[in-house]
Specification:
This protein folds into three domains: 143 residues, no CATH class; 34 residues, no CATH class; 64 residues, no CATH class. It is an alpha+beta fold and 266 residues long.
């Protein structure tokens, strides 16, 4: 069997690389979605003959309301690009949540909100990769990710940096940036300090091998692969948890193993 990217695979319809791309697309969609409020509300200036300083609109015109206009004598509904994308993101994400829930109904459905739905979907990429429709969800979500990125004019990957201490808005740090700024109240935080806080909060979380590897690599600052996590479990170095048929691992157990290995090297 061949993955849509061309890599040979067995027992799945997505390779490991494309599965990671699906996970990153879900994370980025959630992050970009939260930035849309800032894009909607920004003041957009239009220069021209109407005035020396141009006109200021209280909303980005890409997010204006639907409008009926006459085209060749017929009324046609026009949908601004931003408004259409907002509808497409919400409809696509919630539809895939229902598809996934129909397949694995043990976890309660999330709230009807894009951010909540994305967090919920992050439990499932490892399972999704084995379904016939895995290439479809990958194609649709990476397409939405790209469209949202273009709309909010942001660089590629960001990482979850926890909620703001003041307004509790979720923050996402650019890869390699020493600081992260809350999009709501503009407070700036030190990324290493946020990493330390997230490590403490994540210790008792149960996640799959891929999620554990990605989170620990970012938070602990030391590369870790999903295969290495599974090897640790096979050797009894970390405990395996298997609720509702899933194979999960405690984040704190992996951190303990890495800390012990670092001490031995030192």
């Amino acid at each position: 069997m061949t993955c849509p990217c061309g890599r040979p695979i067995t027992g799945a319809t997505l390779c490991a690389t494309c599965t990671k791309a699906l996970e990153q697309a879900i994370v980025n969609i959630s992050s970009y979605w939260q930035d849309l409020d800032n894009v909607r509300a920004k003041l957009t200036r239009y220069g021209g003959q109407g005035g020396r300083h141009g006109d200021h609109l209280p909303i980005d015109p890409r997010f204006a309301r639907y409008a009926w206009v006459q085209v060749d004598g017929e009324l046609t509904c026009t949908i601004p690009a931003g408004t259409a994308l907002v509808d497409a993101v919400h409809n696509t994400i919630t539809t895939w949540v229902r598809v996934v829930h129909d397949r694995w109904p043990s976890r309660p459905l999330p709230a009807d909100d894009v951010v909540a739905c994305c967090r919920w979907l992050l439990w499932y990429p490892t399972l999704i990769r084995c379904t016939d429709w895995a290439p479809d969800i990958l194609d649709e979500l990476t397409h939405l990710e790209d469209r949202l990125r273009q709309l909010v004019d942001r660089p590629g990957d960001r990482w979850y940096a926890g909620p703001c201490d003041t307004c509790r808005r979720d923050m996402y740090a650019r890869t390699g940036s020493p600081t992260v700024t809350c999009p709501e109240c503009q407070l700036t935080y030190d990324v290493p300090a946020r990493r330390a806080w997230l490590l403490e909060q994540a210790e008792d979380q149960l996640v799959n091998a891929a999620t554990l590897a990605r989170a620990v690599s970012w938070l602990y600052g030391q590369p870790l692969s999903a295969d290495r996590v599974r090897k640790w479990a096979e050797r009894g170095r970390i405990r395996t948890h298997k609720p509702v048929g899933l194979t999960l691992y405690r984040v704190g157990d992996a951190l303990d193993v890495l800390a012990n290995e670092t001490q031995k090297v030192g």
